[in-house]
Amino acid sequence: QVQLQESGPGLVKPSETLSLTCTVSGGSVSSYYWGWVRQTPGKGLEWIGYVYNTGGSKYSPYLKSRVTTSVDTSKNQFSLRLTSVTAADTAVYYCAKVASWNYYDFEDWGQGTVVTVSS
Amino acid sequence: QSALTQPASVSGSPGQSVTISCTGTSGDLTTNNYVSWYQQHPGKAPKLLIYDVTNRPSGVSNRFSGSKSGNTASLTISGLQAEDEADYHCGSYTSRSTLVFGGGTRLTV
Fold first, then answer.
1. Residues sharing a CB contact under 8 Å with residue A42, sequence separation 6 or more, in sequence order
2. Which of A87, A115, A59, A46 minimizes the C-alpha distance to B46?
3. Taking 90 as the threshold, does the pLDDT of residue B29 lie above it?
């Protein structure tokens, strides 16, 4: 079981870019697929996208125009950028490891990081 | 934006069984068996309970079981315990290679 830890600013201004990093320990970022999920206060989970160790990605159709992800093998990290944020992007953001048995579920999760969009 | 529909809340007494439903639409669980369930305690990250409709990851209690009929998947928790009180989320991998979740169900024991 790998461990994941999200990091990044807890407060982002409207129209600016949200940037988060997920640091992986107990496994190599090159060996698995990864993903991002968010949860708005009191609401359900929302899938943001998958990050593949090949460098590819797949994003939610609702967010794909604003999302980019990347992998840094030298730091064993992967990252999320969400542009032009609004108050609707205020949420707890989770990074997670994709399950090795079906390549779409999430078997390990970070603890989550709260991001507030406000001026 | 929830593509899957779950009841907002369910409740049960200790020792009883409870079932949580998850209803999909065309392109997700209605046409495949890629359904998963996650448990989330307050302030904690989700935990995968069930994948591919019926399978449990190693370490998950056999009190948790999954099933599917038509466009509705179900999670059944038997022998309810106080520690089962949590939010439960269903998820489905779609024909467009995306993942959709339900709105979540609050279980009160």
1. none
2. A46
3. no
